[in-house]
């Protein structure tokens, strides 16, 4: 009798470069069932067995492929465009332009949208007649979830602050290097070892970012209207802190998926965004009071800003009502994009997501160049090639490893 295919989530690879904050993959409590669902067993419904990727494409159809890829591209390209517009484009009159400098307020709106969308997605993905699983199934999971919320809340302000010292293309390239902080934390904290090719990928990506940044600094210096080397170094330091928090977030989420099985992606999406909203909203409310304390002065909070970031952000948006459209669009695209990631993983596989995610990052950079008029030198294009070349090689090797594991699981069952 043919084995019925079960809708089990796809496993997430910890060290894969092409998965980021929006690419969380839940782990299943039954590895054998996951292998059986990922690889057809012999004959299914009288049809001969095909390669996993090809079978998935044919079974789900071209329409689902277009829907999944189009959804990821449309949501995340728009999200990236609005992110750059919000953080680098002045609002208001040319005589007195103002920049939107309220990252915690922006993160609160985004996490609130994502939490609401996550609850709807969790309810829709629950089989009819069953209750939706709780987003916090036990007390033991509460502390790791809180750590994820805190680290993800701390990461974004450092990233947005770096944009005052580096350009958005450098920001995009560095944010594509999530493998660096993940490997650093696993090597230093968990004493894990990686194959040689991953160290070579890290070297290529690091060299690419260095070439891009150094030659970008020279070009700006000669033009007389750019940033100094000290300012660029400060921006890269802030971005490094951002990446370190991202790596800690990724590592902690991976620990949660391994330890608290079964815990699905939609549950993580809801829990993470609910707790992150509570953390950032608490800061917005308590910020004005903390600023007057010794701790607030030590971290450099502005005592003179009456009402703190929340009041300042609302006043800014009252002066420039058009900012609401960009903020709400940014939050909505981020929330919908996460759903499309989980839809793609559940309908196809993480192998299929490799190409989609890597090419999406490349298209995002090209969109930034075209939409905001960035001009890159030949050496900067070389740096871009090193970064995405390293990411592409890592993704291709990981893809082969996954296909090999699927083939081994199939042969073991025969």
Overall mean confidence score, pLDDT: 75
**N to C succession of SSEs:** HHHHHHHHHHHHHH
Based on Cα principal axes, name the global outline.
globular
Q: Tell me the helix content.
A: over 70%
The percentage of residues in β strands lies in under 5%
Number of continuous helical runs? 14
GO molecular function, one term: UDP-glucose transmembrane transporter activity
Subcellular location: Endoplasmic reticulum membrane
InterPro entries: EmrE-like (IPR037185), SCL35B1-4/HUT1 (IPR013657)
Pfam families: UAA (PF08449)
Explain what you see.
It is found in: Endoplasmic reticulum membrane. It is a multi-pass membrane protein. This is UDP-galactose transporter homolog 1. It holds the Pfam family UAA. With 414 residues, the chain is mostly helical. The chain is built from 14 helices and no strands. The chain has helices at 31-38, 52-88, 103-125, 142-162, 168-175, 179-188, 196-223, 229-259, 265-290, 294-298, 308-319, 322-347, 350-372, 378-413. The longest helix is centred in the N-terminal third of the chain and has 37 residues, at 52-88. The model is unreliable at 1-53 and 217-225 (pLDDT under 50).
Task: Considering the chains and any ligands shown, give keywords for the structure.
single chain; 414 residues; mainly alpha; 14 helices; EmrE-like; transport; endoplasmic reticulum; transmembrane
Topology:
Blueprint: H1 31-38, H2 52-88, H3 103-125, H4 142-162, H5 168-175, H6 179-188, H7 196-223, H8 229-259, H9 265-290, H10 294-298, H11 308-319, H12 322-347, H13 350-372, H14 378-413
Helix pairs in contact: 2-12, 2-13, 3-9, 3-12, 4-8, 4-9, 5-13, 6-8, 7-14, 13-14
């Amino acid at each position: 009798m043919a084995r019925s295919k079960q809708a089990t989530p796809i496993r997430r690879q910890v060290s894969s470069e092409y998965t980021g904050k929006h690419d969380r993959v839940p782990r299943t409590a039954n590895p054998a069932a996951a292998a059986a669902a990922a690889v057809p067993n012999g004959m299914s419904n009288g049809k001969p067995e095909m390669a996993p990727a090809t079978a998935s494409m044919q079974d789900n159809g071209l329409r689902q492929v277009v829907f999944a890829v189009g959804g990821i591209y449309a949501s995340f390209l728009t999200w990236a465009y609005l992110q750059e517009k919000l953080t680098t484009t002045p609002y208001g009159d040319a005589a007195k332009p103002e920049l939107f400098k309220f990252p915690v307020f922006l993160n609160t709106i985004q996490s609130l949208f994502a939490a609401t969308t996550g609850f709807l997605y969790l309810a829709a993905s629950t089989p009819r007649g069953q209750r939706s699983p709780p987003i916090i199934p036990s007390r033991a999971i509460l502390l790791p979830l809180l750590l994820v919320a805190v680290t993800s809340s701390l990461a974004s302000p450092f990233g947005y602050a770096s944009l005052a010292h580096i350009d958005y293309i450098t920001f995009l390239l560095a944010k594509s290097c999530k493998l660096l902080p993940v490997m650093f934390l696993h090597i230093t904290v968990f004493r894990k070892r990686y194959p040689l090719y991953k160290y070579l990928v890290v070297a290529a990506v690091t060299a690419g970012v260095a070439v891009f940044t150094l030659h970008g600094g020279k070009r700006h210096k000669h033009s007389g209207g750019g940033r100094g080397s000290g300012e660029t170094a400060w921006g890269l330091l802030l971005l490094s802190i951002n990446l370190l928090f991202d790596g800690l977030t990724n590592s902690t989420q991976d620990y949660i998926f391994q330890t608290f099985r079964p815990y699905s992606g939609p549950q993580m999406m809801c829990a993470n965004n609910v707790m992150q909203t509570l953390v950032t909203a608490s800061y917005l409310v308590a910020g004005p009071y903390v600023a007057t304390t010794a701790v607030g002065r030590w971290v450099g909070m502005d005592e003179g800003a009456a009402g703190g970031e929340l009041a300042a952000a609302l006043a800014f948006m009252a002066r420039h009502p058009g900012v609401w459209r960009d903020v709400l669009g940014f939050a909505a695209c981020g929330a919908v994009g996460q759903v499309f990631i989980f839809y793609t993983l559940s309908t196809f596989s993480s192998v299929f997501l490799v190409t989609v995610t890597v090419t999406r990052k490349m298209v995002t950079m090209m969109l930034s160049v075209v939409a905001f008029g960035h001009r890159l030198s030949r050496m900067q294009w070389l740096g871009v090639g090193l970064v995405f070349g390293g990411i592409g090689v890592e993704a291709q090797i990981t893809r082969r490893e996954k296909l090999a594991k699927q083939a081994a699981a199939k042969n073991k069952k025969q």
